[in-house]
Protein 1
Amino acid sequence: MVKMKLFNDHFQNYKRYQLPKAQLVIADIPYNIANDAYASSREWYKNGEIKNGESDKANSNFFNTDVDFRVAEFMHFCSHMLVKEPKGTGKAPAMIVFCAFQQLEMVIEYGKKYGFNHYIPLVFIKPTSAQVLKVNMKIVGATEYALVLYRDKLPKFNNGGRMIKNWFRWDIDSSYPKIAPTQKPIPVLRHLIEIFTDPGDVVIDPVAGSGSTLRAAIELNRDAYGFEIDKKMYQKAAKKMLKHAEVPLF
Ligand SMILES: C[S@@+](CC[C@H](N)C(=O)[O-])C[C@H]1O[C@@H](n2cnc3c(N)ncnc32)[C@H](O)[C@@H]1O
């Protein structure tokens, strides 16, 4: 039976818990886009309409926890919590960091400081854009970005003999609850988890938000652990996203 635990705590406090080392860390780091967090979302306006005027989301952060996010501490966590480099080939761990385009270079540089010497950029293609409301924009954003970071040996890679391109479709499954403003779609997370891990491996999300990574991982029989600092977010993740999981939450 798979194991899963979501902690309502800072990932920096991980030493308080007896977590097994992970084959894969997936993290969607706070975008630190400060007061423009909702600039590409309909939620900037009341009921999503410009004519209604700005909502309380205009000029606000996604999370009050965003401003405090420390990338160096996150990299330290990953270097400690990922399994060590194995002797053989085809088994090494990896981390996948979703981030804003503007953060890619910073994440690569911090990764190197903590021994993640290599990276593969990933691009996710969305069929639509939330920025359509911003009428002054000629080109609207319809992509998401992530980096696969690894130390020296190539990560475990289940491609079944197929070529895997560095772009993926942003497939959404609306049967899952929508909890977090930047929630990552479960089909996308499942696809990534299948490529970089095997059943029985451990997946950790230190900034779990809605619990989407944990849900995707346990559905694929991977053990899953996560941290979420925000109490309300944590409660929604536990009650809505992870309530069907036939595994103990605590
Ligand atoms: C971008 S969201 C993650 C969204 C998530 N990937 C999803 O699909 O729902 C980042 C989350 O990290 C949380 N967070 C920020 N700093 C944290 C920390 N130091 N420890 C644990 N959680 C943190 C925030 O409260 C927020 O819910």
Note: The chain has two domains: 4-32+69-241, 33-62.
Protein 2
Amino acid sequence: MPKITFIEEDGNKKIVDAPLGLSVMEISQKHDLDIEASCGGCLSCATCHVIVDPKDFDKLEEIEEGEEDMLDMAFGLTKTSRLSCQLIMTEELDGLVIALPGAPIDW
Ligand code: FES
């Protein structure tokens, strides 16, 4: 089973199972991580914003215009920010490292 490491706001690292085909947002919700995702994944809220480890960023699907527009409204935007509801888990993403906005990151 592929894994994702989430870095939480307090710096805690949580390694979780990441079933193929689920979005990073759905996976985070299964493990009670603090990602609001208020629109439920329909690309109309930006509250599912996460920061992707730069080493993993190029493995992600290209960002589409709708995500880019919505992402502009996210708080604490970075160069490797994405909306987690748009990131679908694949074999290639095994080992993905994701920080929640506000988490201390040292990459
Ligand atoms: S959950 Fe609303 S845009 Fe991702």
Note: The chain has one domain: 3-99.
Protein 3
Amino acid sequence: MLVIPSGSFALVTGASSGIGEAIAERLAARGVPLILAARSARKLEALRSDWMARHGVAVETVAVDLSEADGPARLWEATEGAGRPVHLLVNNAGFGLNGAEAELPLEKTAEMIRLNVGATAELTHRFLVAMRSRRKGWILNVASTAAFVPGPWFGTYSATKAFVLSFSQALHEEAKRDGVTVTCLCPGYTRTGFHAVAGMKSADETPFFPVMSAEAVARAGLAALEKGRPFVVPHLFDRLWIASLRLVPRSVPPRLAAAFFRRSRLSGT
Ligand SMILES: NC(=O)c1ccc[n+]([C@@H]2O[C@H](COP(=O)([O-])OP(=O)(O)OC[C@H]3O[C@@H](n4cnc5c(N)ncnc54)[C@H](OP(=O)(O)O)[C@@H]3O)[C@@H](O)[C@H]2O)c1
């Protein structure tokens, strides 16, 4: 059972929209004191006022760009470093880029790696050390179903999420000995602002794959964390195609993914 001791917080990165907002709101509704982090100070402030009024819960905000070199350290300083212990960390902030690697802007690709991989790894490390010393804590890292397949036209993004899944599964085994639960949430298509940012057609325009709401994904992630699972793929259909990957040679899934992600770009070229 996920219990946050009094005086402690749940910290959610990327809490200003989509899956992060839905996870944070579920926690707020359960009376968990929150620290919300993202770049958009105004969106965080609006959520803070709303949830304090509706759920009667303490909500603090930290406006931070986690893709900047010192972003994760600044978030640490504003939380644990400022005497606000974090018992639950949700590493959710992230974005994707759909397109041919050679055509994507290098600076944007590097920013994505710094956020999806660098910030997730640094925040996990920093907060894990504090949780380990208290012998209690919870970490939910948000990867993707893209973590399971090398995705042509989505290559760097898929690789960043493969890192998050591998890292989280490894730490799940290590950290449970110290009383810390690490779970990786691997959503499939989810109705959020993600696709517009990635330069993709919207989730609902995507053929074949099921689309979930951010709320349903948030529910699945928190339930898996409470059950102490190493990872969760929320939708049954996604669990089935991921299981089927083990039945074919390793060269086949990237070829199937190529046909799919090439067509999912907004430009359609
Ligand atoms: N939607 C999907 O289909 C899907 C599927 C699988 C996995 N995911 C993963 O789910 C996570 C959440 O994405 P979402 O779908 O909820 O998309 P979203 O609605 O675009 O939310 C992304 C969140 O990350 C924050 N963020 C982006 N860049 C940031 C930065 N440099 N520093 C700090 N915060 C930053 C955004 O806030 P600001 O803009 O205010 O900074 C926003 O709160 C991501 O890791 C994504 O890879 C999404």
Note: The pocket of NAP is lined by residues 13-20, 38-40, 43, 65-67, 92-96, 115, 142, 144, 187, 189-190, 192-194, 197, 203 (CB under 6 Å).
